[in-house]
Design goal:
Distance between the termini: 48 Å
Strand content: 5-15%
Order of helices and strands: HEHEHEHEHEEHEHHEEHHHHH
Oligomer: single chain
Helix content: 40-55%
Number of strands: 9
Strand order of the largest sheet: 3-2-1-4-7-5-8
Largest sheet: 7 strands, mixed
Radius of gyration: 26 Å
Structural class: alpha/beta
Number of helices: 13
Length: about 425
């Protein structure tokens, strides 16, 4: 099965079920006890319920017990099982090297404890085989998922995935479920840019996939916690936070772009007589949307400023209030007001910070002028001056956002 340059698969639907090949990788480290049961259950499931040509690959990454010996015995008994041994430890390393060497059309990985229900495997792989998606992940946090796990792991998982969404704007819900798949032609260029060799590998791969415009498919899964885990939760959490910072820097520097990925064509209507809309509603929509976002931001800014002034000096209170509301304002305008703009999220927020700096200087100058004229103005007068300065500053922000930050917005000259 081949993949076209536009990202769609070139075989017919009838051929795909026959010719699609899938490598299912099970990374292991000191799992001599769990490995035989895993392979037995997985092999029986694949033989009975999986419609594609498959191979199980046990990726042993520097086990110090009898795991490699057990894996090789399983491979000798069944030609559908292969073993790959690495001399260095690291789940990410095992997946990178095994996936990179694969000649299958789709590569999968699952944890040896089989915590994820196998009935999610076909929904995971199918959208990759038919070309609809590029990467697929099992999610314990998506609607419809069912999990059985302790409160500590539940809390840590939700906090970590919330941090990913907050810091990177990620759209996937569960970065670390040990149940993922990818089209091999797509994931191979990504692997060269994934630096982590351990548990952050999954998150980094997904962040790079989204950053490069790949389509990530989520499958809600049934998941049962296996308490016989090799994960050091505290160390892994700290490593993950460092990884999030590293990837954010790579995005800002432009090094997170992967040049050799297959690209999907732009969306187009299937009906020949379709009347197409545009991502942007024209100038009137931009003004109305910006006004709504601006009103909400201004009200939030005034409220936050009034609260912060109870403890902080005038300029500190203004700065903190503006930073918080500007983060919301820039993202809201990117998503709604200038929805057709081609500016990336990172670049938009970087330029938005420049606009914010000018806005902050203007509103701060207004407050300083007031305090120069009247050293102790009433709180109502102070808020009135801030409101007037915010209105004028908001008008200036609209001009800068429209003409500079989001200047590539289609339809921006339409009435």
């Amino acid at each position: 099965m081949s993949v076209g340059a536009t990202g769609g698969l070139t075989t017919s639907p009838e051929q795909r079920a026959v010719t699609a090949t899938v490598d299912i990788v099970v990374p292991v480290y000191n799992e001599e006890r769990a490995l035989p049961g895993c392979i037995h259950v997985l092999r029986e499931f694949l033989r009975d319920q999986f419609p594609f040509d498959w191979t199980i690959v046990v990726a042993d990454n520097a086990s110090t017990d009898r795991t490699l010996e057990v894996a090789e015995a399983l491979a000798r008994d069944d030609e559908s099982v292969r073993v790959r041994h690495l001399d260095r430890k690291g789940r990410g390393l095992a997946l990178r090297e095994t996936w990179r060497a694969s000649t299958a059309d789709v590569v999968v990985y699952m944890d040896v404890d089989l915590s994820t229900g196998l009935d999610a495997l076909l929904p995971l792989v199918a959208p990759l085989v038919n070309g609809h998606s590029d990467v697929a992940i099992g999610s314990r946090l998506a609607p419809g998922a069912r999990t059985v796990r302790g409160p500590k792991r539940e809390f840590v998982s939700r906090c970590y995935n919330g941090l990913i969404r907050l810091s990177h704007g990620a759209r996937f819900s569960d970065a670390q479920c040990g149940f993922k798949a990818a089209r091999t032609d797509v994931v191979r260029p990504l692997l060269d840019h994934v630096e982590d060799d351990a548990w952050f590998f999954d998150t980094e791969l997904l962040l790079l996939a989204e950053h490069n415009g790949l389509r990530v498919h989520e499958v809600p899964v049934d998941w049962v916690e296996d308490t016989d885990s090799r994960v050091d939760v505290t160390k892994t959490a700290l490593d993950d936070i460092r990884g999030l910072i590293r990837v954010a820097r790579a995005k800002a520097a432009g090094t997170a772009r992967v040049p050799d990925l297959p690209r999907r064509p732009a969306p187009r209507a299937a009906h020949p007589d379709a009347v197409l809309g545009t991502p942007s509603g024209g100038r009137l929509w931009e003004i109305l949307s910006f006004a709504v976002v601006g009103v909400v931001s201004t009200i939030a800014n005034l409220v936050l400023y009034a609260v912060f002034r109870l403890w902080w000096p005038v300029l500190v209170a203004n700065l903190v209030a503006l930073v918080l509301t500007t983060l919301f304002n820039t993202e809201a305008n990117r998503r709604f007001t200038f929805a057709g703009a081609s500016t990336s999220r990172g670049k938009a927020h970087l330029q938005g910070l420049v606009v914010f700096g000018l806005y902050y200087a203007f509103t701060s100058a207004a407050l300083l002028a007031l305090h120069g004229f009247d050293p102790e103005p009433g709180r109502a007068l102070e808020l009135t001056v801030l409101f007037a300065a915010s209105v004028l500053g908001t008008a200036g922000r609209f001009v800068l956002l429209r003409s500079w930050v989001f200047r590539n917005s289609p339809g921006k000259d339409e009435e």
